[in-house]
Structures are given as C-alpha cells and as structure tokens.
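Fold it.
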Amino acid sequence: MYANCGYFGEAIQLFGDGADVDVVAGNTMIMSLLKFRNIDNAHDMFDEMPHRNSVSRNNMRNGYVRKGKWVEALDLFRIMQTRKMKPSQFILVSLLNASANLGALNQGEWIHD
C-alpha cells in the first residue's frame, strides 16, 4: 500500500534488507516504482531481488520501453531467452516497439517471425 501510494521510504523500511522478500512483494514494489516513473530504483530493486520470475522481468522490460531505454529492454529479453522463458504476445509487441525505435530491422524481423 505504501509503495502504491508513492511512499517509497516507508515501503522500503518494511522490506528491511530484502533478504526475506518474496517475489510477489518484490514485483509489487517494482510495479509501484515504475508507476511513478522511478526506473532507476525499480532496476535496483530488480537486481536485489533474491528470486525473480517472468512477471518481474516483464515489469522491468515494460518499464524500460516506456522510459525509452530500448537497449535495456532488449538485453533483458536476451536474458529471458537464455533461460528458455517463453515470451507472451505482449512482450513481443513491446520488443517490436523497442526494435523500431532503435532502427534494429533485423532484430524486429526476428521477433516478428
């Protein structure tokens, strides 16, 4: 609730050192940070999460695309690929947007295929 209302200091205090934070709480914090366009803190939270899932990665990738950090979005997708995580249609549309903004025609064609 604190994070969703923009009170990140209070929310972070509840997390403590983050060692015992579950993936759902971490994802909620990331989504809230991204909601308030705080991509750098969301990235830090993502990096510090002891466990991540496809929701964690999707949230960060969407945040990168919305903030115009297309290279970071594609890099995160590459990591997902190495871990054999199947992308949803929403991920692919977002990545096509990133590829188009970068002028990465070959990447965009590969994603489309």
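The chain has a mean pLDDT of 82.
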